């Protein structure tokens, strides 16, 4: 059942936690930062949450105006969850919380969602702003993402891209290792942990475009 618990505290922090402080709520928000997701996508990204618990969190967040349900246009016509403008305002808060959380010891075993590592990619890579726009196809855990570089920034959204420079199929843990430098693209390709299509040099430019001030 959705919860109606409240801190009963007039402070804005407490009132915000009344909305997004329940277990799994902020992780649902995290998963929607890069675009709308189906219920099945959220279940796969959050394997530790039961279907009933996820349903409750979604209902609560929707009732508070953090997210909404909508149907994608044909041919997909799937029902998805998407952040509202109010929910989108949580993005810098969630990202700042993630940066702070990197100091906390890593749990074992630890799950890493595709969205989480793609947010790391978006925040840590800053391509040459003078370079022409480029589009990449990333496939993580059987889900496809469009990754675009434009004006020195990385833009990511779910779905198939067009006019792809390069494609990378791997798992979130391997992509995370490529981004944090604990493995190389050559090693990932040789071991079979990653599969490359298209222009390898273009993909390397994206992976090597490290921010001068990584967060």
How would the blueprint of this fold be written?
Elements: H1 12-20, H2 25-32, H3 39-45, H4 51-63, E1 67-71, E2 79-83, H5 85-88, H6 91-101, H7 114-124, E3 134-140, E4 143-150, E5 153-158, E6 166-170, H8 172-180, H9 185-191, E7 195-198, H10 200-207
Parallel strand pairs: 3-6
Antiparallel strand pairs: 1-2, 3-4, 4-5, 6-7
Can you characterise this structure?
The structure is a single chain. This protein is α+β, with helices and mostly antiparallel strands. It folds into 2 domains: 12-101, Arc Repressor Mutant, subunit A, CATH 1.10.10.10; 114-207, SCP2 sterol-binding domain (Nonspecific Lipid-transfer Protein, Chain A). The chain is 40% helix and 19% strand. The protein contains 10 helices and 7 strands. The strands form 2 sheets. A 5-stranded mixed beta sheet has the order 5-4-3-6-7, with helices on one face. It has a two-stranded antiparallel ribbon with strand order 1-2. A hairpin with a 2-residue loop joins strand 4 and strand 5 (153-158). The radius of gyration is 18 Å and the shape is globular. The termini are far apart. The relative contact order is 0.12.
CATH topology of the largest domain: the name is Nonspecific Lipid-transfer Protein, Chain A
Helix content: 40-55%
The fraction of residues in strands falls at 15-25%
- The oligomeric state is single chain
The low-pLDDT segments are none
CATH architectural type of the largest domain:
2-Layer Sandwich
What is the molecular shape?
globular
Could you give the distance between the termini? 38 Å
Q: Count of helices?
A: 10
The H-and-E topology, N to C, reads as HHHHEEHHHEEEEHHEH
What is the count of distinct domains?
2
Strands ordered across the widest β-sheet: 5-4-3-6-7
Q: Give the CATH class of the largest domain.
A: Alpha Beta
Going by CATH, the homologous superfamily of the largest domain would be: SCP2 sterol-binding domain
Give the mean pLDDT: 93
């Amino acid at each position: 059942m959705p919860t109606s618990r409240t801190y009963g505290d007039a402070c804005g922090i407490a009132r915000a936690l009344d909305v997004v402080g329940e277990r799994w709520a902020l992780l649902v928000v995290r998963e929607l930062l890069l675009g709308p997701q189906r219920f099945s996508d959220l279940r796969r990204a959050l394997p530790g949450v039961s279907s009933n618990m996820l349903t409750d969190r979604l209902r609560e967040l929707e009732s508070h105006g953090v997210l909404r349900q909508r149907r994608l246009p044909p041919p997909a016509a799937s029902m998805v969850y998407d952040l509202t403008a109010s929910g989108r305002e949580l993005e810098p808060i969630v990202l700042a919380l993630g940066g702070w959380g990197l100091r906390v010891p890593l749990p074992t075993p630890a799950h890493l969602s595709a969205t989480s590592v793609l947010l790391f990619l978006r925040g840590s890579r800053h391509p040459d702003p003078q370079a022409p726009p480029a589009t990449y196809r990333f496939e993580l855990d059987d889900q496809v993402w469009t990754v675009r570089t434009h004006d020195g920034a990385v833009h990511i959204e779910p779905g198939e891209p067009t006019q792809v420079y390069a494609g990378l199929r791997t798992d979130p843990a391997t992509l995370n290792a490529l981004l944090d430098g604990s493995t190389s693209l050559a090693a990932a390709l040789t071991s079979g942990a990653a599969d490359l299509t298209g222009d390898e040099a273009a993909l390397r430019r994206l992976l090597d475009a490290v921010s001068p001030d990584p967060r």
